[in-house]
């Protein structure tokens, strides 16, 4: 027998403004009971001797430190561009003028 009754499912359906038929109420009672059992198993797995963590492995910062450098000049930035015009990148038009 499920721990969640059909009346409890009907109450939840009313609170959620769901119109459920009798067959759906019976089916959802069993499904909700399985979900609650699965959550209970997860809660049982958590142990007091295991510290809570956000990751399974320890993380280290792999980024290099920031270094202030002068920016690229216009000529350097446009040096490898496929097309340039008036000190800007030239790209194909994607919008029509209306």
UniProtKB/TrEMBL annotation:
Coiled coil ranges: none
GO biological process: one example: regulation of translational fidelity
Entries under InterPro entries matching the protein: Asp/Glu-ADT_sf_sub_c, GatC
Keyword Isomerase: no
NCBIfam families: gatC
Function: Allows the formation of correctly charged Asn-tRNA(Asn) or Gln-tRNA(Gln) through the transamidation of misacylated Asp-tRNA(Asn) or Glu-tRNA(Gln) in organisms which lack either or both of asparaginyl-tRNA or glutaminyl-tRNA synthetases. The reaction takes place in the presence of glutamine and ATP through an activated phospho-Asp-tRNA(Asn) or phospho-Glu-tRNA(Gln).
Family named by the database record: Belongs to the GatC family.
Record's protein name: Aspartyl/glutamyl-tRNA(Asn/Gln) amidotransferase subunit C
């Amino acid at each position: 027998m499920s721990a969640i009754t059909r009346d409890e499912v009907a109450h939840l359906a009313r609170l959620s403004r769901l119109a459920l038929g009798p067959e759906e109420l019976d089916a959802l009672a069993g499904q909700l009971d399985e979900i609650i059992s699965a959550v209970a198993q997860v809660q049982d797995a958590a142990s007091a001797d295991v510290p809570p963590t956000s990751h399974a492995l320890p993380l280290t910062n792999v980024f290099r430190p920031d270094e202030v450098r002068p920016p690229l000049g216009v000529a350097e930035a446009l040096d490898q561009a496929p097309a340039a015009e008036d000190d800007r990148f030239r790209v194909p038009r994607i919008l029509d003028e209306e």
